[in-house]
Fold these 2 entries.
Entry 1:
Amino acid sequence: MATPIFDKDTWLDLTVNIVPLTIIGFFVALFAVVSPWGISGLESVIGFALLVVPFVLLAYLTYISARAIESGEE
């Protein structure tokens, strides 16, 4: 059986970041599929950038945090 990437305690610590990632991901998917105000050029690009950039940065921060937590437990 393969060993998990992170242990249970690390996942519990990362839940603080995973919940907002899930919420942001939901809104990115919602606005990509439904697009309630239509796609109108620059406004849409700025709107998606305001969702995607924090999502990517938070995902990177979560990964760095997980590595720091795992290395701190040794």
Note: Residues 58 and 70 are 18 Å apart (CA to CA).
Entry 2:
Amino acid sequence: MKACDESIRETLDLVDNMLDLADRGDAVREDNGCGVLYGVLRDTAFRIKKLAEAEREAHIKKGWWK
């Protein structure tokens, strides 16, 4: 796998961890401030995921992704 593809894969793994943390944090939060924090984390993860998936598709179309 090319280094640039590996970085995209790692980004997608990071997004999964961000979403998991947002879910776990939201489940145990005790105030609204934490709710905002985990909401921002979740929203940001989805935005990054969309960008990374689009980039992965572009690399697949170029024949780079293995």
Note: Residues 15 and 45 are 5 Å apart (CA to CA).
